[in-house]
Amino acid sequence: MGLGPLQKTIIDCRKCDFRPYLTTVDNYYKMRTGHEARQHTLKGHDTSHALLETANCIRTYLDKGENVLGFYLDLKKAFDTVDHKILLAKLYCYGIRVYARDFTCLSSDPLIESSAPSHLFGVGRDQPPIKFERYSPNGELKELTDGNQTMLANDIERMEIPPGTGHHTDTRTGVFACTSSTNGSAQILIINHRKHSNVLPDGYVTKTASVGDTVTLQVISRSNKIKWRHNGRKVLQWKGRASVTLYNVSTDDEGIYEAYTCLHKPHAYIRLIVRRCPLNFVGHQCNDHCVCYNGGVCTDEGKCICPPGFAGALCDRVRGPDCFGEDCQFSCSDQPLSKEGFEGSCGGELFCLPDPYGCSCYPGFHGLGCTEECEPGTFGADCLQTCHCSEGSICDNKMGTCSPAICEEGWTGENCNERISCRHEPCLNGGTCETNFGFEGYNCNCPVGFIGSNCELIDSSACASAPCQNDGNCSVQLNGSYTCSCAIGYEGNQCEAEINECESQPCLNGGICTDLLGGFTCDCPEEVRGTFCEQINYCECQLWGNSHYHTFDGNFFTFQGDCEYVVSEHSHEDAALSGLPVYSLIVRQHKERPDDQVTRLSFLQFEFEGTIYKLQHGGLYVDGVQGIPLTWCKILTTYFGLVLQLDGHTLDLSLPLHTEIM
């Protein structure tokens, strides 16, 4: 058991001493019901005791003047172990009213034309014994004593009403009540008429309206001497009128309306139910939203009471065409509920459910006798629902399902009876949904670049205003926006800005950048070349043939001496000033014969950071050890840019220009 107190001070039932009250409670139960208080439990599961203790605890606090507004009981375990009717009966005795949502009262003869007895049925899951009552002319309900009540099954009770014995009396007609005898909140009113009465309702026996609505009550009669009563009181101003209209109705207007020409002849009965909140609004302040589909009706608490054949919290689940009950667990095809001529359906029977639903025919039928089938294009209880199948689909005139199952645009659901709303999240591409006034339909607020009822279309007009400047090309994107493909030299969302190509400083080594439309130029220093001034001009010293020299400064010499020459040198003193490493390049020439007029290269020696590289006939020697044969290749490259290259006849020595040669 769990309690949920409805006040600031929490009720602690552990403070109650229940033992003195158990006998008193059972005696109280016997006094109210005339039965012994029996405890039907499984071994080791005395849930009846727990229930009685809880009820006593609540009653104790009530006796002390505490403001106990309500409480909640978790009865799952109790319903597994205790006889259900005994449990509900005890709850009723202790002042606990259980709302029986899954409770139906139906008439198999809503429009009587034979002399056979009529039948009322009380059907509901785990219902206590049903009490059948008759609505009296003074507006009161009196126990129906002239009928024969039978328990047909665990969940079905039948009241057989014989025809009256008097000349003008037919006890089968009028307003009746099916009441759970141990559950005062589960009372359902049901209405029977006689087919050949001289006054009958023109339409439906119950009307459900909301506060502020306009309601018309209308009857058909061959007489113009019609009189009206409301809850047993005469309404003199309506005398002689077959149709009356109630404007701006309130809860004071609900009840039973009778139209008659003679008190001793059958009357026409119309019951008006008025919800205390406007249409689609519920809650204590009537500011909560509620919508039920397929003809379902919202209670003031925001729950949907579904027509027979439909189920679900919003009545959006199709369960028919021949069953009823909250889970469609009762079938009209089974005895004793089947009716001749309506096999496989629930036609010819009037179904009445807890308020504010009232009474209706089963889906697919209408009329006072619930025998007339729905016209094409309509379906549902009393044929009040409109089909919303797509063109070419066939609509079932009972449950509204489409074959093939394709809905009309703007509708969805198992039978296409749900108008697409914000709860279906219809707005695409980031659109926001707003529910229309009255909670029927919606509007999508589309982001820039999208149009359509669901923001599903790309707004092709995005480029209509030619937003791209400077000869840029505009194109619409999948997200509905536009992009500009800019001409060379321009940038920006609308190609509004000229690109400054020099801003990225592309020119190297002291080059000066000049911005052009779509490009740039670099003005390089004299010793540098390349588009970006990236290539530094190198000075070369070349030796070839009979000791001819091109030096670093561009001069040309021919040495014929038989000696060594220092071609390039960077001494320790030089290195201290420049930060470059120490190196030297020496060449040795000789005469092959004493009388030769020219000298020839004997070897080339390059010393770098303490290592001696010597090139002579036979190959390259490193610190006196032969390395590789002489070929055309880069012999040595240093980290500061010196490159030594030899092909066997010509030697090239390259140095960066900024290297100072002493």
UniProtKB/TrEMBL annotation:
GO terms for molecular function: calcium ion binding. Pfam families: EGF, hEGF, VWD. Signal peptide: none annotated. Disulfide bonds join C306-C315, C427-C444, C446-C455, C486-C495, C524-C533. The keyword Signal applies. Residues 287-316, 418-456, 459-496, 498-534 form the EGF-like domain. The keyword Glycoprotein applies. Keywords: Disulfide bond, EGF-like domain, Glycoprotein, Repeat, Signal. Residues 539-662 form the VWFD domain. This is Uncharacterized protein. It comes from Stichopus japonicus. The lineage of its organism: Eukaryota, Metazoa, Echinodermata, Eleutherozoa, Echinozoa.
